[in-house]
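Build the 3D complex.
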Amino acid sequence: MVKATIAVLPGDGIGPEVTSKAVAVLNKVAAKFGHDFVFNEAIMGGIAIDTTGDSCPPETIKTAEQSDAILLGAVGGPKWSDPTAPVRPEQGLLRIRKHFELFANLRPVKTYPALAQHTPLRADLLQNVDMLFVRELTGGIYFGPQQEQGNGDSAYDTELYTVPEVERVAHVAFRAAQGRSKKLASIDKANVMASMRLWRRTVVRVHEDYSDVELEHVLVDACAMYLMTRPASFDVLVASNMFGDILSDEASVLAGSLGMLPSASLGAGTFGLYEPIHGSAPDIAGQGKANPTGTILSAALLLRYSLGLEAEAKAVESAVEQVLESGARTADIAPRGGEYISTSEFTESVLAAL
Ligand code: NAD
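Done.
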């Protein structure tokens, strides 16, 4: 039996709708496999700004510190969307990632045959697409020195990486590849950027510890093309913060809907933050239309990476697959003009399949 405490940060918009469904799935897993999960809820994002003036109040950090993992919904919405406001919902997200040094963002992207017609790609290209992005999350150009200059007529951002930053994310990627098909693609722009030459040199050195893994280097612009022309050829991909951000969003098209995809942000230990890749979807909030799959699959990643419960994670993933194969659809993945079921009904089907 595993005892675990999980901090739940529902956030804004559809966040509370989808996190409550993932908690229901985790409760079902606990009952079925004999585990003891305790959930502690805390505020984050817009709701936290409204309540305390801070997007990630100290009590929320404390709740997370006393937990084995964080399950997060999404933050933000039109009410807090002024980019010049001194306090913004996304700041809370960046702060919590930095606080726990969650430097590796894992985003599995899989195409479900049942959803192939929901992507703009030909069905034959989508066969066997099952890849894992490992994106560096706390360094690079999003965190390097930046400045607007003069009268705002010039500005710069700096892509800055250190060897230890690249080493630690490369180790995560090589280990992930060892647990899959032992193939790793390292994405860079070593032909142009000094920081990316450091990236490539470092990945090559880390590779010496993982001789069973086949390593290829792919330039980021070529990778953007290959993701659309031969997506099934990739298994694990490791990329810098910005390249990983852009490419993993591009790859999300392969899954049929933003609502389908989970993510895990990990640090040096087993603690992690798990969240769907989508935002707070204010356009559908409160209507029972949100697809809870991305958050339910994030809960599966939590079971796998923070609690070491591989069989339980697989059980959740195959329950989702079974439900999709049965034809159950939320609005975002329903055929045009076709029937769809609510967030709660879809979740009930997943619970029944479990
Ligand atoms: P979004 O991901 O919220 O929505 C984009 C589109 O996808 C919308 O049409 C939405 O209805 C749909 N969608 C998203 N998730 C869905 C789901 N689970 N089921 C069905 N449909 C879904 O992106 P956006 O509209 O650009 O941003 C809305 C707000 O979310 C903004 O305030 C933005 O800053 C914030 N945001 C937060 C995060 C986060 O918390 N990690 C990430 C991205 C955006």
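The CA atoms of residues 146 and 156 lie 5 Å apart.
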